[in-house]
């Protein structure tokens, strides 16, 4: 079977160096976090073999390699979504490539709608678990036993504890809750939001879960952070839009950057 990551690894390895980098996937409107990277090298996804081309506004579609708080980081500015191609495994090559480059920790961020009223637009929420309502899975079609991935503690308790500590140190208000993945691209109906609330969801969005499954498949520890960009459909008359998502995410991205810098500063050497 062809090695789908070999060419990407050959391109990126000299720029990444040895193992130990921490990866961050930046969701809609959150790409500005990359502005804080020093010694930065930016590579468009289009120049990396096997990386997806996202056509969603608010996603720059490039890899940024450099340092934050003195630590080596690999930032993915944007992602390919299930709703773009119908392929839940669209981010497989990037995630597997990260693993083979020696990344053992990934922070996955997104813009999300809030299903509970105490999480307001502009707030951050730490993901504790998720619900997959799409029926899709990026590991469908795999043939080896590695496809049977345990999703217990998919969001590392160790990393969650460190992020909570970083939030306290940075003075960042941080909610915590369950993220519900829906396919999109249309937003949810008020009836669907009532169903999700009954199921125990606190946040809703159109990404992240496939990447978490893939990361766990390839042995990467995961933390997930949502920037709340809107109240979900039907809440206080809310009617979400992509424009609202991008606008609020850019503001929330400033707070997210503070949290990520505090998290990286507080990590033990890796």
Question: What labels describe this entry?
Answer:
270 residues, alpha/beta, Rossmann fold, five-stranded mixed barrel, 9 strands, Purine nucleoside phosphorylase, purine-nucleoside phosphorylase activity, Purine_phosphorylase
Strands, count: 9
Give me the CATH fold name: Rossmann fold
| Number of discrete domains | 1
CATH class category name: Alpha Beta
Order of helices and strands, N to C? HEEEEHHEEHEHEHEH
Q: CATH homologous superfamily name?
A: Nucleoside phosphorylase domain
Helical percent range? 25-40%
Count every helix, treating DSSP H or I runs of 4 or more residues as helices: 7
Q: What's the pLDDT, averaged over the residues?
A: 91
The CATH architecture designation is 3-Layer(aba) Sandwich
Tell me the radius of gyration. Answer: 17 Å
- CA distance, first residue to last residue: 33 Å
Largest sheet: 5 strands, mixed, barrel
Lateral strand order in the biggest sheet: 5-8-7-6-9
| Oligomer type | single chain
Which residue ranges are poorly predicted, with pLDDT under 50 across at least 5 consecutive positions? Answer: none
- The backbone outline, from C-alpha atoms, is globular
Structural class: alpha/beta
Describe the structure.
Strands 5-8-7-6-9 form a five-stranded mixed beta barrel. The mean pLDDT is 91. The protein has helices spanning 6-16, 82-85, 92-100, 157-170, 190-199, 209-217, 242-266; strands spanning 22-26, 38-44, 62-68, 71-77, 105-114, 124-132, 174-181, 203-205, 221-231. The two termini are 33 Å apart. The longest helix is centred in the last third of the chain and has 25 residues, at 242-266. Helices cover 30% and strands 25% of the residues. The protein has seven helices and nine strands, in the order αββββααββαβαβαβα. The radius of gyration is 17 Å and the shape is globular. It has one domain: 3-Layer(aba) Sandwich (Rossmann fold). With 270 residues, it is an alpha/beta fold. Keywords: Glycosyltransferase, Transferase. Homotrimer.
């Amino acid at each position: 079977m062809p090695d789908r990551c070999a060419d990407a690894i050959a391109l990126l390895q000299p720029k990444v160096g040895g193992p130990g980098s921490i990866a961050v996937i930046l969701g809609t409107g959150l790409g500005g976090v990359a502005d804080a990277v020093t010694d930065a090298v930016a590579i468009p996804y289009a120049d990396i073999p096997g990386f997806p081309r996202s056509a969603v506004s608010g996603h720059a579609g490039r890899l940024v390699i450099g340092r934050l708080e003195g630590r080596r980081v690999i930032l993915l500015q944007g992602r390919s979504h299930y709703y773009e191609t119908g392929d839940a495994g669209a981010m497989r090559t990037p995630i597997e490539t990260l693993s083979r480059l020696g990344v053992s920790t990934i922070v996955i961020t997104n813009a999300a709608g809030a299903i509970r009223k105490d999480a307001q637009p502009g707030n951050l929420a730490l993901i504790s678990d998720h619900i997959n309502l799409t029926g899709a899975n990026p590991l469908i079609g795999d043939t080896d036993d590695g496809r049977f991935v345990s999703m217990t503690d998919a969001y590392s308790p160790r990393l969650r504890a460190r992020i909570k500590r970083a939030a306290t140190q940075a003075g960042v208000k941080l909610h915590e809750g369950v993220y519900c993945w829906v396919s999109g691209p249309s937003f949810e109906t008020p009836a669907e939001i009532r169903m999700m609330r009954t199921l125990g969801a606190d946040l809703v969005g159109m990404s992240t879960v496939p990447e978490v499954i893939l990361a766990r498949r390839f042995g990467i520890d995961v933390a997930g952070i949502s920037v709340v960009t809107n109240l979900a459909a039907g809440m206080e008359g809310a009617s979400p839009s992509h424009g609202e998502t991008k606008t609020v995410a850019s503001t929330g991205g400033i707070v997210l950057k503070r949290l990520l810098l505090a998290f990286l500063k507080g990590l033990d050497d890796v």
